[in-house]
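Input chain follows. Return structure tokens only.
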Amino acid sequence: MLFLMETGVRVRELCDIRLNDIDWKDGLVKIRGKNGQERHVPIQETVKREMKKYVTIRGQERSNYDHLWLNQDNEPLSSRQVQQNLNYYGKKAGIKNVRVSPHTFRHTFAKMAVQNGANIFSLQKVLGHSTLEMVRRYVNMFDTDVAKDHQKFGPVQRLF
């Protein structure tokens, strides 16, 4: 869940990550996106630290697969398993009126990134979109968000 929130990757992209796709030193993960497009997505120190713990517990030699995310049978985690796990944990956490899904994590990542000042072009690259129009679909800002942002960038107020 931390990785989904940190990167906004699609569930299939998450399941396709291999151990050798991780550049621990530079904090980058190679993602195999749609139409065979590859991109490198950054991860910050907290997620990198937790991923290292996971890899240590998971073991590198325990499986016949080099996928990063494995299920309890040491087989690659499937998209469906990720969806089911998120649904389970969402119910266990008492989350209601919000669909807890990989795509919700993707949408939340995009919205929070913009709220935290992300450059929309950087966000486009991280999300793996070919056009800004796709990014706009994720970042439907509420009127209150727009008003808050306008307080930051509105030019007239700064003149007086």
